[in-house]
């Protein structure tokens, strides 16, 4: 984020993946950083695996709308590769994208997964993470989603100390082990993007 410009983040996935949790973590982290922030969400049949997306506007100045117009977004977190492709339209040309390779095939007409991932990974600025394998490796089902946030955090104007505080507060009711697993997943994602 430069000077007083706003920073537009899009989170795109399907129901049950944690898109709203990711958006709330970003919202809390931006707020704790002393930034102005607004968020909007779309829940399209999310209980049946439909689209869930969030727009988040972050700024040093007061934000008047959470809506990101097409072609103006600064970052996309794709929790599902086809949803990531569908939401690319909201980004500025060359804006970074952090997306999973793990598809949620929730419709008969879902395109071939390898084709979707190949198309997405061929776009400049796209970083792909195999979140499913990461979750299995870390023996923590939510690890992949939190790792995507960690990877995306490298592009956000928020310090690691703030992220740690937000994660601790968000998962405090679930205990220290869950907080530790989320922090480990977050840092793993961050390290993956910096390699």
What tags apply to this protein structure?
195 residues; alpha/beta; six-stranded mixed beta sheet; 7 helices; 6 strands
Description:
By secondary structure, this protein is α/β, with parallel strands linked by helices. It has helices spanning 19-32, 81-87, 113-121, 131-138, 143-153, 160-170, 176-194, and strands at 7-14, 36-43, 51-59, 75-78, 97-100, 126-129. Strands 2-3-1-4-5-6 form a 6-stranded mixed beta sheet, with helices on both faces. β2 and β3 (51-59) form a beta hairpin. The longest helix is centred in the last third of the chain and has 19 residues, at 176-194. The chain is globular. The mean pLDDT is 93.
**Radius of gyration over alpha carbons?**
16 Å
Q: How many strands? A: 6
Determine the mean pLDDT.
93
Strand % is 15-25%
Query: What is the percent of helical residues?
Result: 40-55%
So what's the overall shape? globular
Strand order of the largest sheet: 2-3-1-4-5-6
Q: End-to-end distance, in Å? A: 22 Å
Q: Count the helices. How many?
A: 7
> Class by helix and strand content?
alpha/beta
